[in-house]
């Protein structure tokens, strides 16, 4: 109890405060001797769910909700804010795509122009960011709003709808083209209105729509129509392009007309060497097993299934006809107004203002696109026929009346006055349309009209003559007036020419038109792309159509063109390998088809094409070289000069060895000696020329070169000595190996000739005559001779002494060379192989070689060389028997050698030689001994 | 001795001993020989198993022998030009001849000339039918090979010129040989060319499947019946074997270093002009310009026998032995008509001139059987069924079987448990 009391007193002790003393600090006094600094926070911490905002602290939800505001300024501000927000945070677009798109699309029909403009800008921005496949789910909504705007009662909204269309066309042509059913009628309604039923019956031929003219637009009716037609044109373009086309159609359209066809099966390509060494495994039939492959074009009946959902509607001729039936009368009306409006002012009808010209150009483009809407060939033909039946007279009447059209020069001041209008046009997006060249208009007109001409019957041709005539004249003049045409126009013109040639079937027309194209072709300084286009035009014409159309095949111009090809090839040289390849692509099939004009020209220029110094065959890349060698196979005759050229081409090393062997083979095949070609009346390669070609190729050096070599004094020359009777000219390794490959092929070809004895006789004579007297001989020639003689030698044939002496000289020189070759194993192997083959097949040669070893004539340094040669010969087992046949001679030489050397110390080489000798001899002895025993 | 199933038919360009002769494929012994003239390359053909037709070398007629009358030349068919290649359809109804650039088609029942096809630009070098006679392939010296549908060629009215079904234009030098595989319109075609390649195509689509580049020109080509291998005769005398289906299950072959030699048949010294494989795919026949015909064993690549001819071999083929060949007193069922030399479609309608009736030989032999597509489908489903059954089994069956096995496992476990309990009882029972 007491302790409790004391405790309580301790808790509440009174502190006595006294005067003069400092007041003691309280226990809970705050220590204030610290310093503080301010932390600056520019903005508050954001909440995680609020998301990024704009400068005005509005997030995306706010902005979207503001789009529903009554005030248009706020709406516009929200749109601008959205653009700012989204461009700052591109990831937001993906997240909120559905909300943003649906809200923006709703604003297409807003009353206020500035809001719509902002909406279009935003849409353009969004479209840049989202790929088509992401937009696809929202596209029905977008297109619904677009349709709504296009059909809106307010004209300003209609105009802006076209801009939305522009954006969508630019970024999502594929998606848009699927909506064609709705959009096409919308287009019609933009420039026309449905006729009342009563009037429709009166003008039954004119379709159910009539053009509208509204006076309260800012632009004239013509300009308005132009803007609409521009969009319609690009929309149709999108429809045509986005559709998977069939192959046949692609090859007929525009620039792609002469593109190569591509197969659907990728073939397996292997070369034999890869396969033989197990590198490439072939698995050919995996894609065509028991079930025919899906790519197979073989059909028992045509496929009844159409492609996709949208193709079902627009690819058949009937649907296109239905649409064209309403559109074409409208277009014609517009045309008449455009043409008529001008002709009032001026006296010359064919001169048009720029605006009218643009309008007409659009009309023609749309007509062209209409025809291309059907992908299948047969459908296209139906459509063509329908157009012809329904509209030929109209077209003739309106289009052809003032053809060809020109641009009316407008005076300067007038233009100034029109400045305002032009600015409006720019604003309306018709910039592209306003500056249409008259040439483009005329060419397109030709294209449209020519599709109406039918193939075939005579009476139709007569009918068409009146309107095809001016077109022909126009084309001829355009092409042949010497002016340079742009690639696009030229392609279009060539398409027209092609169509006219194929449909007209008359030789006069063909020649007339081709002449004009040819004039264009003959111009100098054409751009490469233009030149290639023209070249392709001709070559396609020749290769594809010639068979079906005799009038093309007989065309004088085409023959002339073909004949000019080899000359061009020569003139072109190495300047443009691509163009040369293109030329060869035509020359090769033409030569294969035995075209007389081409072959004659080829024959005439053969020597310059196959010139070994600067002919095409050496300067062009390898692929073209191969073609040139293959073309050789079709040459009608091989005169001696050409064969001389070819032989040099083989040996100069500027074509690869494999190509050279190919060349040799094709000469071989063309000769009647090869037994391959059947009995022909005219012989392409004369036997004499054939053999001299092969001999020259075998030696690799022409007689002049060899003669020149006798007098030179070069580094590569190894001087002659007792051991090397010929002075050897060492060729480079590369040249030697190249020549070695060629010799192999030559030997093979000569080997297959009918009579081997006669063949060898000829070669022997040639060697005797051309080579035997020489002092300096290149090593490759020696090797070649040593190689071919044993291969060609018949068992029953005795070679002449001159030849044998020459061969022994060669052999000795080569053996001598062999010992000096250290650097390249391949060359050494080749040389040894040649020597060995010669020595082992012709025993007399070995004897001659051994006989020519005069030990006493040698100087001290040459003795080891001789010994090395001998031991080389002795070491080889296959030669051993032959060596033993000459045992006495051999013994004699070795005795002389040891005697003559007489040195104090036995050198290594002598020991080696004696060892080899004893081994060989003993081996032989035991054999002999064995034989003696039995 | 029983009659052989297959025989070798070969001819050379010299024709000293015989024009063409028939040999035993296993021993190389000569059975028969037919005399008179000689035969040009790729122009010996057997018509309907009753006649042998061979174009005379360098002349404008075709020699005809009845197959059982060996030594006697039966007749000569005079043609409008030198025949460069000849082929009779397997059903014996049509004969095709390449004469210069044109292909002539005769109907055998009447001898009428049905069509002259001139789509080649240079001499036709080879013509082959598919095994069901529905298509044929022609190759020429203009680097082109054309695939034709026989019915479209025959049935067209004269106003339209017949068009080939496909144009194969990927070769860059003359085509030397063509081989048509089996399976009718679904067959594969192999073409050989001097441009050192062999290409394999599909008849149905005209697409190229394979191109093999060699280092020599190829003069002849053939496929074995299973189309496992492609045999190519080179101009240097080698025969190259290309395996078309690499079995990826490697049988430890990687260590063998014989990959160089084992795919080449070496022996000929000159151009290999003709190749043929026997029905079972074990024997390969080759004829060469070195005047020999050789028979090879495909598996071991050994030469079994060789026969020396007196000139370059122009034709050599292994053919199924015709029934009439060894019956000396048999007769051909139908006499050979006179071949007309001019295309005259008006005569086809009224046959008053010859007094004959247009008769299709094969009509009664054609039992209505399934098309190749149907057959292939059937075969495929059969094969699928077999593999399905053996590998995966039927869905229903497996379920039953699994449940059976499970039950068995259960009973076994139970027995095991019983045994265990029994033994523990026995062991722990206090004695």
Automatic annotation (TrEMBL), chain A:
Main location: nucleus
Keyword Isomerase: no
Swiss-Prot/TrEMBL HEAT repeat ranges: 100-138
Keyword presence, Nuclease: no
Domain Pre-rRNA-processing protein Ipi1 N-terminal: 134-236
Subcellular location: Nucleus, Nucleolus; Nucleus, Nucleoplasm
Pfam families: Ipi1_N (PF12333), TPR_TEX10 (PF25781)
UniProt keyword annotations, A-Z: Nucleus
Domain of life: Eukaryota
Location of region: Disordered: 1-29
Stretches that traverse the bilayer: none
Annotated TEX10-like TPR repeats domain residues: 557-922
Family listed: Belongs to the IPI1/TEX10 family.
Name by which UniProt lists this protein: Pre-rRNA-processing protein Ipi1 N-terminal domain-containing protein
Biological source species: Cirrhinus molitorella
Automatic annotation (TrEMBL), chain B:
The WD repeat-containing protein 18 C-terminal domain, residue ranges: 383-430
SUPFAM superfamilies: Quinoprotein alcohol dehydrogenase-like
UniProt keywords, alphabetically: Cytoplasm, Developmental protein, Nucleus, Repeat, WD repeat
Per-repeat ranges for WD: 117-158, 189-211, 265-306
GO biological process: DNA-templated DNA replication; rRNA processing
Any one of the GO CC terms: nuclear pre-replicative complex
InterPro entries: Quinoprotein_ADH-like_sf, WD40/YVTN_repeat-like_dom_sf, WD40_PAC1, WD40_repeat_CS, WD40_rpt, WDR18/Ipi3/RID3, WDR18_C
Transmembrane residue ranges: none
Repeat as UniProt keyword: yes
Subcellular location: Dynein axonemal particle; Nucleus, Nucleolus; Nucleus, Nucleoplasm
Family that this chain belongs to: Belongs to the WD repeat IPI3/WDR18 family.
The protein's name in its UniProt record: WD repeat-containing protein 18
PROSITE patterns in UniProt: WD_REPEATS_1, WD_REPEATS_2, WD_REPEATS_REGION
Lineage top rank: taxon: Eukaryota
